[in-house]
Structures are given as C-alpha cells and as structure tokens.
Specification:
The chain contains two helices and no strands. It is an all-alpha fold.
Length: 69
C-alpha cells in the first residue's frame, strides 16, 4: 500500500466561484428531479381521478332552498 499525502490531507481549497458553481449545479439537479417527480405524481393522480369520475354516476346539482317572500 502506497501512502500519499492525498490520503492524509485535505485537497487544496476551492475558489469561491468554483464552490458557488458546484452548489448551484447540485441545487439545480435537485430542483429538476423534484419537478420531474411532481409531474409523474400529477399525471398519475389525474388518471386516477378521470377513472374514478368515469365510474361514478353523474350526480345532479343540489337544489337551493326556495325563497319565500
């Protein structure tokens, strides 16, 4: 086993711009992944709702109370 300084010491510091770029890239990946998951869930729920509405009989609109006066 060859011991190198990289195994024992931290690599050099990243510049602030590189660090911000890496964080921005990771954040955008997370946001894109969540958006894709939300789209899949929305589509799944839409299909379930449409199937449920197709099976359920159409209910008539409730009638309001008659006004006297």
């Amino acid at each position: 086993m060859n011991a190198t300084k990289d195994q024992f010491f931290k690599p050099g510091k990243m510049s602030a711009q590189d660090k911000a770029s890496a964080i921005d890239h990771m954040a955008r990946q997370i946001i894109a992944k969540e958006a894709a998951q939300r789209e899949v869930k929305t589509e799944r729920l839409r299909k379930l709702r449409e199937a449920q509405q197709a099976l359920a009989p159409a209910e008539p609109a409730p009638r309001g109370k008659a006004k006297r006066g």
